[in-house]
Records
---
Amino acid sequence: MPLPNYGVLVGTVMDKMDSPTAMQKNPGSKPHYQVLIDANGTKFRIAVNVKSNQQPSDLQFYMSSNYAHPILQHVKQLEPGFSRLPKQPNTAALDYIRGNLFDINDMRIVPTLLGGPNNDLNDIFDAHIQHALDTPGSLVYAFGDRWGPENNARDKYFDFLPGNGIHDIHMNQGNSGSHAGDNGIYQDGGLFIHYPDEDRWVAMFLKFQSQVVHTVDDDDEDGGTPIDVPVLPEEENAVRIFAALVNPKANDVGDEFVYLLNATDKDIDLEGWAIADKMKKKEVISDTILRAAEVTKIQLSGRAAQLSNDGGIITLLDRDGLKIDGVSYTKQDAKKQGFITVFRK
């Protein structure tokens, strides 16, 4: 079953506790970085994994210190407190695979604890949470699964009552074994921080090494479960979304197009591939050979995938429906009519 109480907690930092200190406070607990949050007068605890209890134990991590993505249009509208989120596209719900939140290939393995400063997950979280604590008006947005309120149980780390919190601040699909029951689409976790003095967003995303990145794209109980696929051909993995015209000078419908780049020395038949938009509408490609080391233009008919001028995502799928590449663009990117947005230079 997917996460039962998926949503986002919005609030200000009151206190924090790194993983070693937290485990001393609560012996036998799993390694988590703990954050005490005030959400409109109610206390919550954010429990962020810094280590897996399965091997390999170190997590994969991606962070942007100046994050820009159309999902922020939805996130900015959230009020302090906990909000349930619909597990759907074009909402504030996170999906690492379908939302093109970042290039998942850019995730790196980061150890939990290492000697020295700024070189492990505890250090990274501590630096940004401390900055939020020191910056008036900063807000933390924690995406995951809520627990509580526990009216008869004080919090084990910060000793407040009733116990309240949010965990699973990581990818929540592609699991097998004991965590297979947590799989679902549009229910991934993550941590955003907004610093108002700079109007800057920091985004942090976590994934266990055991989680796979191709999952069933259904809204039912099979959604988010791993797909057992053969290794994709090297040529397919080298097809990239290079650029797009998202805001034509003429009527948008039927005049938008996407440029695809073949970075290999072999021609690739794109018959049956598709371009998908932020609403998961798919424009199927036909009669197109992407020549070696060339770029081809895919015209969108306007009857399927459409590129919103308010910001959106563009996803390239192969003939089996597997994601090959994905990009995002903001409302600012789409502001100039008739200008091509370039994603890879």
---
Amino acid sequence: MRLTLCLLAGLVVVAATSFASAGPQDGRLDVYFIDVEGGAATLFVTPEGESLLIDSGYPGYDFRDRDRIVDVAKNHAKIRQIDHALVSHWHLDHYGNHAALTEKIKIGTFWDRGIPDALQEDAQFGERIVAYRAASQNQSKAVKPGDRLPIKSGGTPLSMKVVTASRDVIANTGDANPYAKLHEAMPEDKSDNAASVSLMTTFGGFKFLCCGDLTWNIEGKLVTPNNPLGQVDVFMVTHHGLPSSNNPALVMAIDPVVAIMCNGPTKGGHEQTQQTLRNVKSLKHLYQLHQNVNLAADQQTPAEFIANVGQLGECKGVFVKLSVAADGASYTVQIGEDGKAREYKTRN
């Protein structure tokens, strides 16, 4: 009897281990939202074991962000290389770490919106982009709206479609957006945020939208008067939760069930964005990578949905993990490797 119980316990451990990691063994799609202190770094691992990193966090800080990405990739996602690296736009907290990363882990194909000659908001761009060009060996590939990344798809169809890039958007087809009237144009944003690459990932019926730092007017252009995106299951809150993004005409239209905000202690997580998310009728939970130290507890998500607390430099760099079932019919979200995995049903 004791031997039988030991064998059963072993089987449970094996099953739990298989469930926790993506790859051909369990057929799950995993997404890690890595804490880079108010920048962005989002790692996908597909059921076929293929990987995609969107953005790479800040350079410097004694390689803090680089090392966090490498730790998640190697020790949690259990991958040996990053097959694809996509840069959402040309701000340092999104592209500044690729050169340092290539010293620690191999990166395959680089994708971006095309490298501009200069940025008006960054006089040092010409110097800073040299490291990215070296990491990509000047072989990065430019994407445009409507493109699909060449990610392998298995038994459950997987697609990663570019829906915005370089201030252009996909065709405004689909049903009329009942929230289109909420869009009131702001002054033109001439920064590279407005040129962000946005990616819609679908896995069976599951849908996940990530828009980089896309700003208000382009968000409105994307979803008015029609909504070509439909409703989604998970939304990565845009631009760290800043109010120059997260146009309610978009956020209300996509009506996410779960939102994940990659903010910092004092960057993003803005009160206005928090209120917009509270107005989303289907939203069950908002996860924040950081507590906003400038907001009261009742002005942000409950503490159990916050991965890191305290001031800049005080946190432990805990990630948030999204894991989609092999058939795409359900998904879990948890904080850290050992956090409670809350399960949600895919809406489609």
---
Amino acid sequence: MSTLLVKTLRDDPADAEVPSHRLMVRAGYIRRAAPGVYSWLPLGYLVYRNVERVIREEMNAAGCQEVHFPALLPREPYEVTGRWTEYGDQLFRLKDRKGSDYLLGPTHEEMFTLMVKDLCSSYKDLPLSIYQIQTKYRDEARPRAGLLRCREFVMKDSYSFDIDDAGLERSYENHRNAYIRTFDRLGLEYVIVSAMSGAMGGSRSEEFLCPVPVGEDTFVRSPGGYAANVEAVRTPVPAAIPYEDAPAAHVENTPDTPTIDSLVTFANAKFPRRDSEWTAADTLKNVVLMVTNADGTREPLVIGLPGDREVDMKRLEAQLEPATVEVFGEADFAANPALVKGYIGPQALGAESVTGIRYLVDPRVVDGTRC
């Protein structure tokens, strides 16, 4: 203990925003080297290695074999899959002295598949499950929360190669059970939720989340057992509402109503209802956003939804990945005169629109919806 390299702190570090970050720094586990990049001190590295050991033991017990790829990777495999471009600004790109393009690996699917393609020449070589524990790199725009969102981080990634769908299902369950055993051994509370596969792709995806007050994900859970990351929540489409006896649609002048609240106030004053007052839920709100694609091109996107709801930006970005989304600015409105701020109705959008602007509608807005 007299020679142990450890430095504890009495006060919270100025750059630490979340409890886990504050505690790890104050306990002498990690030290910040750069934004989103951390050094491990002896106490922290002991824990790090123990966690890694548990993971490795459970993966090996499940019949998986460990490999190790370089972190510095050539451009060509990622060019073939399109992810050299799709990853956008998150990718660390560099050139060697000869001008050849390389990247710091954000994930290694391409390398795993190339290894199996090179070494496995027959279906008799399958099934096969291989994994690695390797450092990954992603150029996070706003690295924060200590180790929860870094530019350099360690990932255990594992891949199975099977000859049919039944084999794929067996491999998936084998990995799932290995993860359950791993989290049980680590003594962590966890919830298994449906998730988005993101840039990695795939037909089925689940996440093991540890419920804590501060993190980088949010999930929903119902008493019936349904659990999903908010990005992966699927909204059931309600049945269409009969509207044969409704009066024909027509245009009404609604001056000085640039917001939903002002529109509701106007409607209750000019078009009072007998059964109840108009509410925001009776209106249709069109939210205008600007989408930046992986190739740098920008295009407007309009989301139609009930007036009492908001667009979940994180959930939307998960659907549009690798594109990013931001709120439409004043300059954007000036460049798109067909979109009048505060007065954008479905007539200016949709299939018969001449604006050419993509229009997506919330599943709750079904045929016959009163808006």
---
Amino acid sequence: MNREQDTAYKTLKGVRKSKTGRNILVPEAKNALDSFKVQVASDLGINFSQADKGSFTSKDCGKVGGEMVRRIINQMKQEMINSTQNNRYQ
């Protein structure tokens, strides 16, 4: 198998829309997510507001991202519980 055939299954032309592969689904939420990121980072003792973003370790970035996801999931669970309870009593 030559090199061209070997990598053909790994990429599909036209599928990726950005260089990093991360597409912003709701552009209006970008500012809110950025401020949420800074808030979570400060809660963890990481100063994400500094200008040099390249000085952060992967571990710190992972902590912040993981905690953001954890908090969003917990908030959604709570909203689902509240929604279920409100619908039950109507």
